[in-house]
Write a structure and sequence with these properties.
The protein is globular, with a radius of gyration of 19 Å. By secondary structure, the chain is an all-alpha fold.
Length: 299
């Protein structure tokens, strides 16, 4: 089961990495908020049949009602959607002003943030090797953003900010899916919450036009059905068996896949110093996962 869980996370990382390219080209006719709304709506519609099928065995609504006030479940589910919405919107805006490679690699800052947030929120300490990895990770991300044009620094900053929300999302996903055992319904719930929040941001800031939506349909369908419908659902299923730390390291490979996809499909080159920064980030990821912890991770 562990092998299956890790395989699903690897597939998810591949889909997410390629999706960075389509998230970029999808904004040729749509604004970042509009593109986020349409792709998450497509993702929700793709997940809905599976959520309905799953609800016949276990109902997320019934679980929420049963938990009541003693151990409320509704708030974590809502927070799951909010974390996804903010992380996705920040990421989408940043793709308009930074490269695919930068956005993808800096998004993987959630790898050191997961153990850091575990320390701050749950007092789960990490060893000195992992603190060293965090410093290396920060140096690598600085080199990557420093190698970008001046205006891209803003985009890089948005990606780094979004990484905090993705780290929180990874930590909360593991808890929610183990509490409910309803991954398809959780995937639908968080996707619909993101859809609604994106719509609320889109209405006052962007013009709604089907003429702008139609040219972006291939990108909407790929990033909606595959990246959201399949990717986030695979993540929820996998994190029933995989730990938060294992999930973070495997999912961080999206940065590698995105850089390759950006080079092959968009011809986005990386400067030498940026490549060195990316290498530092990957090195930090390996340190975080290969060094022993106080409580060895079974996953």
């Amino acid at each position: 089961m562990k092998l299956l869980a890790h395989s699903l996370l690897m597939i998810t990382a591949l889909i997410w990495g390629i999706s960075f390219v389509f998230q970029t080209t999808g904004m040729d006719t749509l604004g970042p908020y509009g593109f986020t709304f349409w792709r998450f709506l497509a993702g929700a519609l793709a997940i809905l049949p599976l959520a309905i099928w799953e609800s016949r065995k276990v109902s997320l609504i019934s679980l929420v009602q049963e938990r009541g006030r003693d151990k409320p479940l509704i708030l974590p589910v809502i927070m799951l959607g909010v974390l996804m919405a903010v992380g996705s919107l920040l990421q989408q805006v940043s793709l308009g002003i930074t490269s695919v490679a930068n956005a993808a690699f800096l998004t993987t800052l959630y790898v050191p943030l997961v153990p850091l947030m575990g320390l701050l929120l749950f007092r789960d300490n990490i060893n000195l090797y992992r603190w060293l990895a965090v410093l290396i990770f920060m140096a690598g991300s600085w080199l990557m953003s420093g190698a970008s044009p001046a205006e891209a620094v803003i985009g890089d900053g948005l990606v780094v900010l979004g990484a905090f929300f993705w780290a929180g999302h990874i930590m909360l996903v593991g808890w929610c899916v183990r509490q409910t055992k309803a991954p398809f319904q959780l995937a639908f719930a968080q996707t619909m919450i993101t859809t609604m929040l994106s719509f609320m941001v889109m209405i006052p800031t962007e013009t709604i036009s089907m003429a702008a939506v139609i040219p972006a349909l291939p990108e909407i369908l790929f990033t909606g059905v595959l990246s959201i419908g399949a990717g986030f659902t695979f993540q929820l299923i996998a994190q029933k068996r995989a730990s938060n730390a294992a999930a973070a390291i495997i999912l961080s490979l999206e940065g590698v896949f995105a850089a390759i996809a950006g080079w092959m499909l968009l011809e986005q080159a990386m400067a030498g110093i940026a490549i060195f920064g990316a290498a530092l980030i990957l090195g930090a990821v390996l340190i975080i996962e290969l060094t022993p912890t106080k409580s060895p991770d079974s996953s």
